[in-house]
Amino acid sequence: MASILSENYSYLKENHSELLKLTIKDVCVGGYMLAVELSDGSQGMASFEPNAEIHCDKKNRDFGEFTPLQIKGRTLLELFECKKNNGLPNGLRVAALNAISVKLMDTFGLKVIRETDPIDLLDLSGEKVITIVGAFHSYIKKVSKTKCHLNVLELNEEAMLPEHRQYFVPAHKYTEVLPKSDIIVITGLTIVNNTLDDLLLACNDKAQVIITGPSSNLIPQVLFEKHIDIIGGTLISKPELLFPLISQGAAGYHLFTYCAEKICILNEKSF
To answer: Number of helices and strands (H, E) in the chain?
Structure first.
C-alpha cells in the first residue's frame, strides 16, 4: 500500500478507529471509475485502471480477498490490512476514504468552496512554469492561452489532443520537470496507481500544488501535511445516480453533469 494511503489509514486508526468497523455494503466497477457504498450508507468513488495482473498464468489467478464476490461484507479494517497493492484493492481504498472524508468534512472545520474548479483559483498571470500531471484537456486549453510555460506529464502522448502535443513530456521525466515548476496540478489517479508519493517528493517546496479529480477526496489533514495547497474534490449530490452512471461507463465529466459537484478544499496555511 502506497505511503499516502498508509498515512490515511494511520490517521483513521488514531482519530476515528470506529469507522474502520464499517463494511463494504456494495461495489460498482465501471470502465473508468469504481464506487463503494459503506454500511452506514455513505458513498465514495475513485478513478480506476484495469489490473494488468488479470492476464496471468492459471496458477497465479487470484480468487482471494478483494477479488470478485470476495468484497461485499468485508470491513475497512480488512481492506487496509490487506497486503495486496494492485489496482482493485487500491481503488477500493481510495473510494472508501472518499466516502469517509466527505462524511467527516463538516467536523474538520475546513475552508470549502463549492461548485468551483481548482483551475479557477490559480493565478495564471506572468510567465510561470506550470506542470499538469495527466491529460486534463480543459486545464491544458486554459493554461495554453496564457504566457505561462506549460508541461504536461503523461504516460501516453495519444491521450492528448493533437493541438496540445507540443506540451507533452514523458511521465518518467517528472524529476526533471517538477522541481522547476511554480504550479503543479496532479490527477488523483496517481493515488490509485501508486505514483503520487514519488511525484510529491520531486515537487519544489515553493510550488503551489493541487490534486484534483474523483480520487482526490482523501483525509485533507494528511494531504495538507504533504504540502498540497488545494484539493479538488467531488461532492455527490444525487447518490441514487452514482452506481447507475458508473455501471454504464461514466467518466468524471458524466458525474458532474448528472450527480455530483466540484468542490475545492483549501489548505489555510497556504492562503
So the answer is: 10, 11
